[in-house]
């Protein structure tokens, strides 16, 4: 992304342009040429100086939501400084700009509102969505993250307050994979909300009506998707935080015709598969010998199972045998063939087994090697459940993946303590390291941020026309390969966050190579794919405008 000289604003307009503003880092020559003389304090600072100042101000914030507001406000003023701060301090900043703090921010979005970001496409815009999309500032959009706000993390229907999710996800695309911020478009599809608390909220920012359903909703989504193809041809669409029934339907409807994926289904699947396979490097077991029990049977859970089945097939099992290794518990109990109330996405995994409603009893009956929580139901991996996992496994895999932290099925400390430190634990939101019997155990965070930025970058590098499950399989394998032995020795099944930009680059290479091998790439194939990927990655540094 380049900025042409005749495209440059000047004076106050330049200082109010977050993509170009450098604040006190504008040089004396730039201040004269760009009508900035007198509009800034006289002393000139470097980007590093500004990072130090921002860190000092950040350190004065006493709550995570205050830190979130500070960072979003910084992003609104100076995107280069914001991304420099995040990239250089990713371990500290990631939980603030995304999970778990983004969940709290979404719940309070209308109350902490400062400045609009992204596009709001509403039910009132039917018939004119192309015009709405053309109001966006940039024409070279590469990635669109879109939600309708119905299932935000594990928090449910937050309506228009869900805009915090696309904004946060695209911040990660830039910080972690180097997609230029001008090429990112957050979209909130406001079709109403069924959350009565929001409809009674005097500061609610969305449409004050109940949700569109049925054919009207389908036509609304169709018009939006087609408008995107017209306004931003070739842009990747990432569906985010749709309710299960819509998430599955939309993915199946569009995946074979446009460049799109659903992060809750496919991104979660890839990061979980990577964690499971890395965990097997600790336990010394084979993937084909695993029995996995999923607590939760929504789109994310069956998406994980689908990719694990794909991996087991690659490892030599037939598909039906692989499916029989995956067990599910939904809100009513064990997913078994005798039930006549199963949604279509659950039926392939219905087992020939007695119906059981209790999780601990299911663990005792199924004897899973891995327990994976994607329920959004906190504290459900009780001491009885985790202890049972420890009794049927020497090294049980326990993944409490529900977000944000307050929705986690159990904590790292509980999983370790109740298994005598033998659990291989991962979670969706971060938990601190635990010292047990003198040994330090570092839980892994199964954060989709390890996957989706690299997948997006890979599709850009190849100019792919579709996103396939094989690309997510390649991404998962690459992520697993990036886990160093020293992390495994501490119990962590993911690489350190400090290496996440390199991880994203490697995943992008794997995804691009898969696009080329499957005939879905339209770009010329470079001789050195890694060098090509790195050349595309935005680095948050100031450039001279003179």
Structure description:
- With 546 residues, the chain is of the alpha/beta class.
- It folds into three domains: 5-96, Hemocyanin, N-terminal domain (Up-down Bundle); 101-258, Rossmann fold (3-Layer(aba) Sandwich); 266-449, NAD(P)-binding Rossmann-like Domain (Rossmann fold).
- The chain has helices at residues 11-15, 28-33, 47-59, 64-77, 79-88, 90-97, 101-107, 129-134, 164-177, 196-199, 214-231, 244-254, 263-283, 299-314, 319-323, 359-366, 383-392, 412-418, 452-462, 469-481, 485-489, 500-517, 529-536; strands spanning 119-122, 143-147, 184-190, 236-239, 260-262, 292-295, 326-329, 370-373, 397-400, 424-427, 434-436, 439-441, 444-445.
- A six-stranded parallel β-sheet has the order 7-6-8-9-10-13, sandwiched between helices.
- 51% of the residues are buried.
- The mean pLDDT is 96.
Within CATH, the superfamily of the largest domain carries the name: NAD(P)-binding Rossmann-like Domain
Percent strand equals: 5-15%
Structural class: alpha/beta
Mind telling me the C-alpha Rg?
A: 23 Å
Q: What's the overall geometry? A: globular
